[in-house]
């Protein structure tokens, strides 16, 4: 399969490397020193599941150089999705599939507002990985997983083909029965831990060890669940307990990418996570006081980071 990974960070770098390892023709979209390192030295994947060096690696900053694309995995930050949709629009052919593997609950809608909805699948991923150095991706925890499906949940030929491609690459995957349920399940988890981790400057383990902070996590999760329910998303009643089981199973020192970005003074996905819950709460008439506190306490720093970029 001819695949483009748009954004070669922790997510795109990991899954792109595994897809290349399985023999797919993968092109990595990157920039700056990261791009140069990948071109010169290949893409080095360090993983608890086994290392792999993609060398030579197809890498460019310009997707217009790539022809006959079967699949585009969008692996940038959520605030960049609309811009990326505009960039990829001219290179789409009749059969190109586009999947966002990002955090957030509205990425498919943002993509579909720019490109024809027929190209878009719903998707998400689960992995703890990051760019360790230019050209080096480090996967440190969690079984890397891709969940995907048609927005109307049909089992079409293209999703069945993608399932085969992921299986061949030995990437754990799930063809969703209800893709919105899957997206909101991941969204509830990531939005519960990420920004609160940034606010407290604490790891997952440190937050869980504090009864007060753990209760804040629980209250934030309950508000997210209420928003999902108000939107008609079919989440199980035990979803919060299940997500806390996952959080508690991760290494004590685990942090989320949003948290790391904020702590490093970079723009983050704050708006797509707690900010979206605050906005939807106002639109739907659902109180979100804990998410309000987290969001507005971090917003001045987020605005400062964006002003500097």
UniProtKB/TrEMBL annotation:
Swiss-Prot/TrEMBL keywords: NADP, Oxidoreductase, Pantothenate biosynthesis
EC number(s) on file: 1.1.1.169
Family assignment from sequence similarity: Belongs to the ketopantoate reductase family.
Protein name from the UniProt record: 2-dehydropantoate 2-reductase
Ranges for domain Ketopantoate reductase N-terminal: 3-152
Its job: Catalyzes the NADPH-dependent reduction of ketopantoate into pantoic acid.
Stretches that traverse the bilayer: none
Native species: Lutibacter agarilyticus
Pathway membership, UniProt: Cofactor biosynthesis; (R)-pantothenate biosynthesis; (R)-pantoate from 3-methyl-2-oxobutanoate: step 2/2
